[in-house]
């Protein structure tokens, strides 16, 4: 009988790649991640939204790259040797790269380790968060990937 409760607990877990953006840690559902690549030359695209940095050539495929910092209204990216481009695979839109300051670790969180985000009107970077994961003493804001990649008119 104890086996079934363990199996149920295992079924309700998800893995997240934990990334650092500024001083905060964010989790990205590992199911969306196609690849993680080192920073490389990004070719600018004229007249693109301010948060689109441009495109990269990834094994012969052109991939758009976005500054997650700019999209969330944070300060400009600062590239270091730890900066990475996380390649997300999205059903309708194909591949999209997002720039993060550092990739930290992979964590597995169960449903009871995830709290809903604070309620209230979602503005700015809060609209990209769908939960807060608790990994030991560390709190990890969990990205809502669909909200990050959605094209919203900037006002």
UniProtKB/TrEMBL annotation:
Xref: Gene3D superfamilies: CheA-289, Domain 4, SH3 Domains
**CheW-like domain: which residues?**
13-154
**InterPro entries to which the protein is assigned, alphabetical:** CheW, CheW-like_dom_sf, CheW-lke_dom
PROSITE patterns, A to Z = CHEW
The alphabetized list of GO BP terms reads: chemotaxis; signal transduction
Q: Tell me, what's a Pfam family for it?
A: CheW
Question: What's one GO-annotated cellular component?
Answer: cytosol
- What's the domain of life for this entry? Bacteria
SUPFAM superfamilies listed in its UniProt record: CheW-like (SSF50341)
| Protein name as it appears in the record | Chemotaxis protein CheW
Origin species, per record, is Agathobacter ruminis
């Amino acid at each position: 009988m104890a086996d079934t409760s363990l199996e149920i607990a295992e079924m309700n877990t998800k893995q997240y790649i934990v990334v650092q953006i500024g001083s905060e840690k964010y989790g990205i559902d590992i199911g969306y991640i196609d690849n993680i690549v080192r920073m490389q030359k990004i070719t600018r695209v004229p007249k693109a939204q301010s948060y689109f940095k441009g495109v990269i050539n990834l094994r012969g495929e052109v991939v758009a790259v976005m500054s997650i910092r700019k999209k969330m209204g944070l300060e400009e990216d600062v590239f270091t040797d730890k900066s990475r481009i996380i390649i997300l695979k999205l059903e309708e839109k194909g591949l999209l790269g997002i720039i993060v300051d550092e990739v930290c670790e992979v964590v597995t969180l169960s449903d009871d380790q995830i709290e809903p985000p604070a309620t209230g009107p979602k503005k700015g970077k809060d609209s990209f968060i769908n939960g807060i994961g608790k990994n030991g003493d560390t709190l990890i804001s969990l990205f809502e990937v669909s909200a990050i990649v959605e094209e919203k008119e900037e006002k």
